[in-house]
């Protein structure tokens, strides 16, 4: 599903150049649930942003579902993001003035579906994350866990190939974190490829594979026996 | 543009951001409102001034002689010019096709008029019948001097309302005799004058009688002339100005006065005064336009500021939308669509309010100098379009910039 080789990325900070990714080689197969771990500054978020086409690599190749992602125009990038990827953010990034349902329906709007279809599909994803009763509520009327579940529904709405989650539990307490991870595991069980960036070991243990990043290189890449989140709730 | 979903998006955004929308709208609506009201008042002032001139002053040309101020053809300056009946008759003869109402007058500035025991000192004018129209007099009783009075040198007298009050009090003066310079005159009428008390403390007799009985011989004091009406104001001013010049030239030549000696022959052309007033009005209108345009510019700056703030405020949202697959053009479109929609609606609201105000309050304004304030609808409409366009342009650049920000940076924006 994802093939990257020799990925480099550096940022210019004034006069200095900060080399964040120093040759990443990494591939993810269909249906995997991978966690990317590392301390802050290890480059894990940068890697995720490049995978999410929110940022561009300086060097190296990135192939997503057989499509080479390189030198994309804004328009192309937007199209691929919409088609291939679903994002889950640490800070949820819901649109504050839109109801939960409308937030979930937004990717479908950009896919060009009719309004009634958008609403139907958005509703079914809200049901899937258990928030059908909260469809009409605004994000600030929801708890953190509920917000993140709305965000997951939104990420799923466009039926993407890969879900990218950047610290999805970073702003949540342990119990809520596990509930969210339980949902992520369920979605993975249905066969969807998911990448989770985290710095929490217990969260990483709930995935099927842990990739350790340190100073811009992968130092460890191991399959783990998955801990089911609901057992810990 | 006619994408229903886009409209839904916009209505939703507007509904959820009422204050922001209201502020944008307010700055646009008030800009248009102020401009239209200013233009309306400007037009109203113009109408008011026109009306003043239409009512009172008509197109009177008024000639009175003075003293020469320049040496000419061997004649010394300081010579007093005396107009004669001949001058008047020649002017009538040569310009019969142009002239409408005419009268020469002979006046005695202070003459004693008495009735019984009462007497007073009044200005006396010897006039032709047209004088009534030239001076805008109206009669409260009796008649004015007529052609028969002039032809037969009748001793008829028309007295001003003030004179009637002084001499006759409550008594009916018509048919009574008053004494003027030792001669008995029969009162045939009483007049009032829009000029008020001062103008009504006068008596009027036939010019022939005045010249014969009061030592005027064939001297005349003043000339009052009006021209036949023209189709429009500009033509009337042009004709009036040309005629005044010809008249001056004619009289100067007849009395051997230097052609550039304006003090020997004074010609007062009321229409030219009116024109000067109109010139002033045009300046005032220009000023109003200036103020109005500045208001619009302030409105545009206001809209631009708000658009900048909106884009800044929505940077994160733009980032989210881009992460979800929004294309740059759709972001720009969304922001512009909203701004155009809001400015257009607000602009029309401002327009409607101001037009309503002018329509209903306008006719109620009871000021001498403002009458029927109106505004050219096309001009007002164009202003709205300009403002909408400016608002769109002002919104475009920040929107374009926002749409080009990498989503990762937009998402980081707090």
TrEMBL record, chain A:
Q: Return the PROSITE patterns for the record.
A: ABC_TRANSPORTER_1 (PS00211), ABC_TRANSPORTER_2 (PS50893)
SUPFAM superfamilies tied to this protein = P-loop containing nucleoside triphosphate hydrolases (SSF52540)
List the InterPro entries. Answer: AAA+_ATPase, ABC_transporter-like_ATP-bd, ABC_transporter-like_CS, MacB-like_ATP-bd, P-loop_NTPase
The residues covered by the ABC transporter domain are 2-233
Quote one Gene Ontology molecular function term. Answer: ATP binding
Task: Give the record's keywords alphabetically.
Answer: ATP-binding, Nucleotide-binding, Translocase, Transport
| Similarity-based family | Belongs to the ABC transporter superfamily.
Which PANTHER family has this protein been placed in?
CELL DIVISION ATP-BINDING PROTEIN FTSE, LIPOPROTEIN-RELEASING SYSTEM ATP-BINDING PROTEIN LOLD
What protein name is recorded for this chain? Answer: ABC transporter ATP-binding protein
What taxonomic lineage is listed for the species of origin? Bacteria, Pseudomonadati, Bacteroidota, Flavobacteriia, Flavobacteriales
TrEMBL record, chain B:
Keyword terms: Cell membrane, Membrane, Transmembrane, Transmembrane helix
Please report the stretch or stretches of sequence annotated as the MacB-like periplasmic core domain. Answer: 21-239
Q: Where is the ABC3 transporter permease C-terminal domain?
A: 291-407
Pfam families assigned to the protein according to its UniProt record, in alphabetical order: FtsX (PF02687), MacB_PCD (PF12704)
Recorded hits in InterPro entries, A to Z, give: ABC3_permease_C (IPR003838), MacB_PCD (IPR025857), Macrolide_Exporter_MacB (IPR050250)
Organism, as annotated? Gramella jeungdoensis
Keyword Nucleotide-binding among UniProt keywords: no
What family classification does the UniProt entry report for this protein? Belongs to the ABC-4 integral membrane protein family.
Q: What is this protein called?
A: ABC transporter permease
Q: Does the keyword Kinase apply?
A: no
Q: Topology versus the membrane, per the UniProt entry?
A: Multi-pass membrane protein
Q: What residue ranges are annotated as transmembrane?
A: 21-41, 286-311, 331-357, 377-397
PANTHER family for the chain = ABC TRANSPORTER PERMEASE YTRF (PTHR30572:SF4), MEMBRANE COMPONENT OF TRANSPORTER-RELATED (PTHR30572)
Q: Where in the cell is it found?
A: Cell membrane
């Amino acid at each position: 599903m994802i093939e990257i080789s020799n990925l480099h990325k550096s940022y210019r900070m004034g006069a200095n150049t900060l080399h964040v990714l120093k040759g990443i080689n990494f591939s993810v197969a269909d249906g995997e649930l991978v966690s990317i771990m590392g301390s802050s500054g290890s480059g894990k978020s940068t890697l995720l942003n490049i995978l999410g086409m929110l940022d561009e690599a300086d060097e190296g190749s990135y192939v997503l579902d057989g499509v080479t992602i390189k030198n994309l125009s804004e328009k192309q990038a937007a199209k691929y993001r919409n088609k291939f990827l679903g994002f889950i953010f640490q800070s949820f990034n819901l649109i504050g003035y839109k109801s939960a349902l409308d937030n979930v329906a937004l990717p479908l709007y950009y896919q060009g579906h009719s309004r009634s279809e958008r609403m139907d599909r958005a509703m079914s994803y809200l049901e899937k994350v258990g928030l059908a009763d909260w469809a009409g509520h605004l994000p600030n009327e929801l708890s953190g866990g509920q917000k993140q579940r709305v965000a997951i529904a939104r990420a799923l709405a466009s039926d993407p190939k890969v879900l990218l989650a950047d610290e999805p539990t970073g702003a949540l307490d342990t119990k809520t974190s596990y509930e969210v991870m339980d949902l992520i595991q369920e979605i993975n069980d249905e066969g969807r490829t998911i990448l989770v960036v985290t710095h929490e070991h217990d969260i990483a243990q709930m995935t099927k594979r842990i990739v350790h990043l340190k100073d811009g290189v992968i130092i460890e890449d191991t399959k783990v026996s998955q801990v089911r989140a609901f057992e810990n709730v | 543009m006619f994408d229903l979903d886009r409209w839904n998006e916009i209505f939703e955004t507007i509904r959820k951001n009422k204050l922001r929308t209201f502020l944008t709208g307010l700055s646009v609506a008030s800009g248009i409102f102020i401009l239209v009201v200013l233009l309306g008042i400007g037009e109203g002032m113009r109408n008011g001034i026109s009306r003043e001139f239409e009512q009172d002053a008509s197109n009177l040309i008024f000639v009175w002689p003075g003293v020469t101020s320049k040496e000419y053809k061997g004649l010394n300056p300081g010579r007093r010019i005396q107009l004669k009946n001949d001058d008047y008759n020649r002017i009538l003869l040569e310009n019969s096709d142009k002239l409408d109402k005419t009268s020469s007058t002979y006046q005695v500035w202070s003459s004693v008029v008495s009735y019984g025991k009462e007497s007073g000192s009044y200005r006396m004018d010897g006039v032709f019948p047209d004088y009534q129209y030239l001076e805008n007099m109206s009669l409260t009783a009796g008649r004015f001097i007529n052609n028969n009075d002039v032809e037969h040198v009748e001793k008829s007298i028309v007295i001003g309302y003030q004179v009637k009050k002084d001499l006759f009090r409550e008594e009916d003066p018509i048919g009574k005799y008053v004494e003027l310079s030792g001669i008995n005159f029969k009162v045939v009428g009483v007049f009032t004058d829009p000029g008020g008390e001062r103008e009504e403390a006068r008596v009027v007799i036939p010019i022939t009688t005045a010249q014969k009985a009061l030592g005027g011989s064939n001297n005349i004091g003043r000339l009052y002339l009006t021209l036949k009406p023209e189709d429009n104001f500009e033509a009337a001013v042009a004709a009036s100005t040309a005629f005044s010049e010809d008249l001056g030239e004619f009289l100067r030549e007849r009395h051997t006065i230097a052609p550039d000696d304006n003090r020997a022959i004074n010609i007062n052309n009321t229409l030219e005064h009116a024109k000067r007033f109109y010139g002033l009005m045009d300046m005032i209108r220009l000023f109003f336009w200036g103020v109005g345009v500045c208001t619009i510019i302030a409105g545009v700056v206001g809209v631009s500021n708000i658009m900048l703030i909106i884009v800044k405020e929505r940077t994160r949202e733009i980032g989210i939308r881009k992460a979800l697959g929004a294309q740059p053009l759709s972001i720009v479109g969304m922001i512009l669509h909203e701004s155009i929609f809001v400015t257009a609606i607000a602009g029309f609201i401002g327009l409607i309010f101001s037009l309503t105000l002018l329509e209903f309050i306008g006719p109620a304004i009871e000021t001498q100098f403002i009458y029927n304030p109106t505004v050219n609808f096309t001009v007002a409409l164009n202003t709205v379009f300009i403002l909408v366009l400016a608002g769109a342009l002002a919104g475009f650049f920040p929107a374009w910039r926002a749409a080009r920000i990498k989503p990762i940076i937009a998402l980081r924006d707090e």
